[in-house]
Amino acid sequence: MPGMSETHNAARQVSDEPSPRRLLSSRKVYEGRIWDVVSDSFQLNDDGDALVRDYIQHPGAVAVLPMNDAGEVLLIKQYRHPVAMDLWEIPAGLLDVEGEDFVVGAARELAEEADLVADRWNVLVDFFNSPGSSSEAIRIYLARGLSDVPGHERHVRTDEESEIELHWTPLDAAVRAVLEGRLHNPSAVVAILAAAAAQADNFQGLRPAGAPWPEHPSQRR
Fold first, then answer.
1. How many domains does the chain have?
2. What pTM does this model have?
3. Which of 146, 142, 143, 117 is nearest to 193 (CA)?
4. I want to staple 120 with a disulfide (CB 3.0 to 4.6 A). Which of 19, 129, 145, 176 is the partner?
C-alpha cells in the first residue's frame, strides 16, 4: 500500500529512547545568567567522523494548564522580547531550584503567575522544546480543583510579569485558536492539544503528578 512501510505494524508502540554516543569532548563556550552554550564533539559510531554540535544547556522547565469546573482553561498574556510579541501562554517557569520536586515548582508558578492553587494534579505531557539546539525539557501538568490564593499571600509580579493578563476560555475555543495560527507559545500549543486529546476518555489516561520523568537531563546523569 502506498505510504506504508514493509515493516509496518499497527500494534507497534513508538517511543523515544536514550541513545548515548561516544563523547570526545565538551566545553562551555558561553556562560549566561540562566543557561549556557556548550560545544560537544562526538561520534555516531566507533568508525564515524567526529561531529561538533553547539547547543543551549538548559535547566528545564515546568508549565501548568489550569482547568476550572466548567472545562475552561486559563491563558495568560505576557510580553516576550526575543520575538517582540505579546503571547498567550500558560503559567510556566524554570526548574532552577536545586532538588525541588517538579510538581512543587509547577505549583509555585501557578500561584505566582495566576494567583491560583490546585488540589488535583496530573502530568499532561512531556516534551523537548527544541531538541536540535537545546537540552530544554518541559513537563506540563493539568491542574484542577482550583481556588484563589488569598490576596495578602499573592506574589508581587515585576518586570514583564507585571503586565500579565489572565483569560479563561473554553478548551475547544483554545484548540481553534491553535489550528487557526493565533497562538504560538509552544507550551500553550502542546498543552491545549494534549488536553483536547485527553478529554476523549475524560482524562482517565493521564499519569499521576509524581510520574517518573527519566527523559529530563537531570535524571540521566
1. 2
2. 0.90
3. 142
4. 145
